[in-house]
Amino acid sequence: MRPMQISPDIPTAMLEEQAIEQRRRMHQTVSALRQQVEGTVRDKLNVRRYAGEYAMPAAGAAAFFSFVVGYGIAGMFKHMVK
Q1: Which of 19, 23, 48, 75 is the most exposed place for a label (fewest CB within 10 A)?
Q2: Which pTM does this prediction carry?
Q3: How many domains does the chain have?
Q4: What is the 3-state secondary structure (H, E, C) of 16-65?
Q5: Which residue range forms the structural domain that includes residue 65?
Q6: What does the alpha-carbon distance between residue 45 and residue 39 come to, in Å, rounded to a whole number?
């Protein structure tokens, strides 16, 4: 919808109606954007989904790291005892 030209012969009531309609459209747009952003943020911060999806790889990485560190520490003690 193209904006109307403002001239002195346009009735004030018509301008007020246009302002009300523009505010209503802006409110609907902001509400729609807010719902879209809330849905996206809620999906990105879904802890249960990510915990279920990445629990096993995280546990595997932690086990591997622990094994490597433990093996390194045991090797240091082995060389100290000799």
Answers
A1: 48
A2: 0.43
A3: 2
A4: HHHHHHHHHHHHHHHHHHHHHHHHHHHHHCCHHHHHHHHHHHHHHHHHHH
A5: 55-82
A6: 10
